[in-house]
Input
Amino acid sequence: MKNILLVLPMLLTAPVLSHAQTGMDPERLALIPTRLQEFVDDGQIVGAVMVLARHDGIVLLEAVGYQDLETKTPMRADAIFTMKSVTKPMTALGIMVLQEDGRLSTSDRLGQYLPNLGNLQTAEAGDRFPPVRLGQLMTHTSGMASEGDLYEQDFMRKSLADVVATYVSKPLASAPGTRFIYSTPGFDILGRVIEVVSGTSYEAFFEERVFDPLGMQDSGFFVPPEHRGRMPSFYRIEDGRLHEGAGPNSQSGDLPHEGRVFPAPGFGLYSTAPDLGALLQMMLSGGTYQGRRILSRASVTAMSVDQIRNVEIGPNGFGWQVQTRLFNHGGPLASSRAWGHRGASGVSVWVDPENDLAGAWLIHQIGPEAVSARSAFENMAFAAVVDR
Output
């Protein structure tokens, strides 16, 4: 995340395309922020930012409500949000970039890059299983346990290499390829593979290969002190009223800023709606953005279709979650080809290539009220599609 001059929210609406360029109904698009403001006025959410993209540009970029309810600070269109698990598809994207460089393959054994993790086994005596492969880490089928079983005290103050090194002594929760176990540490391992193969830090790799080419100038894994004022406060509803804070023992709150070293490849990304708009355009365009290729069309497809191919385990793409049933990512009006990911802070990102529409819902609030607001945004977004 670079140190740049702050941009006024009103200026960020300039790149939004006209109806003639986008095949969207302008009147229906205009209703979206009006409806979402009603959720603010009714005390159901404090504030949110939303962006909609088609392959050729942004069609909606709007902020509603407040960044902080006590000070009544208006929500900025370029507010910085913690993306939580939406970081996972970003880490997977890094692996795909290196695969296209011919530096690794998703079918490779983990031990080729991290030899100390090459012989991970379960705790059952006498069990011997095939080695973990990179693609299994990307689909949560590697057998790696969840963060509750693997993270040690003060892990946020350790380097990525040091955190991953602690996994050597921990057994797999299941044999590789036999179960779906949602594993954030599995993406830490992928982040470390990126470091080893690229010869640079996880953060520097993404600056060079993803953020800079896409113009994602406010995205990164650490928020500089001068930009933290652009981060909305966290809220929850208890007893029918809004309260500041994510709640005790909640994973939905912010990460520590002071003393943190760990970039958290499974949950550490910060981003903004304009930055995500560029990422979404790239994915909808089959890997290109403003004439520059970031990924091949084949890699975009591989990330967004089922790579597990076992109905007893369930579908998942490389990093992205694919539809397990209609009405999953993007809501009930999205096509069965839609895919996306959500984060514990309340954020949601989805892509629907069949409708040439992608969106990001950015909020620091979880709970049924925030989900209802997100659903309204998604349903109204698809209702505004006139043609491809």
